[in-house]
């Protein structure tokens, strides 16, 4: 796995680089500006890019803009975006696009090494990895979709873990239920959201995007997601 890192914080940039190299992963370039990042992508043709949301010169959305441009230039590039906190406008913009080979994690997740590496590998292999806190905030802000309101509490838990990019087996392990139970919950989710099987749409992605596309302001506190371990 060939990796380019775009992060303007020197300590975090070097720390992530050392962590990945210790795992025998090939960090081919580390950069601190969007321009250098795009150059590195052109030169090294990495498999994965790890990109900070906020980069110079304005520290607003330069990282997101650069990540989108990098994917335009290299469509098969996997991108793992890092953010200091949940930035819903940026997350929605990213996730409303093609969600394959895409991850969005809070920087604090890097310190949880196994979770970070799992997310990186999932994205590199063509999947999706969304930080649980991002999912939690989206879930509490979705109130306009009648189909989503019909979901049971357990079905919403399953949908939240689907949004993180977990497969059925991983969801079953997280919720301490059987694979068959997860499969049943997912069938119910598809039915309640009126998502019929077609050749043109991935129903898992469509289910996740339903609440992203219907996000509204809501004063509720973020709901608790299932624990990440036993």
From TrEMBL:
GO MF entry, a single one: DNA binding
InterPro entries per the UniProt record, alphabetical: CheY-like_superfamily (IPR011006), NreC/VraR/RcsB-like_REC (IPR058245), Sig_transdc_resp-reg_C-effctor (IPR016032), Sig_transdc_resp-reg_receiver (IPR001789), Tscrpt_reg_LuxR_C (IPR000792), WalR-like (IPR039420)
The keyword Transmembrane belongs to this UniProt entry's keyword annotation: no
The keyword Phosphoprotein is assigned to this record: yes
Record domain Response regulatory: where: 2-117
Positions of post-translational 4-aspartylphosphate modification: 52
CDD domains: LuxR_C_like, REC_NarL-like
Gene Ontology biological process terms from the UniProt entry: phosphorelay signal transduction system; regulation of DNA-templated transcription
Record Pfam families: GerE, Response_reg
Keyword tags: DNA-binding, Phosphoprotein, Transcription, Transcription regulation
HTH luxR-type domain: residues covered: 144-215
Protein name: DNA-binding response regulator, NarL/FixJ family, contains REC and HTH domains
């Amino acid at each position: 796995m060939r990796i380019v890192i775009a992060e303007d914080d020197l300590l975090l940039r070097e720390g992530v680089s050392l962590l990945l190299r210790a795992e025998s992963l090939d960090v081919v370039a580390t950069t601190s500006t969007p321009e250098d990042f795009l150059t590195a992508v052109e030169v090294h043709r990495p498999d994965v890019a790890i990109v900070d949301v906020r980069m110079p010169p304005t520290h607003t959305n330069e990282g997101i803009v650069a990540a989108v441009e990098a994917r335009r230039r290299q469509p098969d590039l996997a991108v793992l975006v890092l953010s200091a906190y949940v930035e819903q406008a940026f997350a929605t913009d990213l996730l409303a696009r093609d969600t394959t080979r895409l991850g969005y994690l809070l920087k604090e997740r890097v310190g949880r090494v196994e979770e970070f590496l799992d997310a990186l590998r999932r994205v590199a292999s063509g999947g999706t990895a969304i930080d649980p806190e991002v999912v939690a905030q989206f879930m509490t802000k979705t109130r306009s979709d009648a189909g989503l309101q019909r979901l049971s509490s357990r079905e919403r838990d399953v949908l939240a873990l689907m949004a993180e990019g977990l497969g059925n087996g991983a969801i079953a392990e997280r919720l301490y239920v059987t694979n068959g139970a997860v499969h049943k919950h997912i069938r119910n989710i598809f039915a309640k959201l009126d998502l019929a099987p077609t050749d043109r749409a991935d129903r898992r992605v469509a289910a996740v995007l339903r609440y992203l596309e219907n996000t509204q302001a809501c004063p509720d506190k973020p709901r608790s997601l299932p624990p990440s371990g036993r």
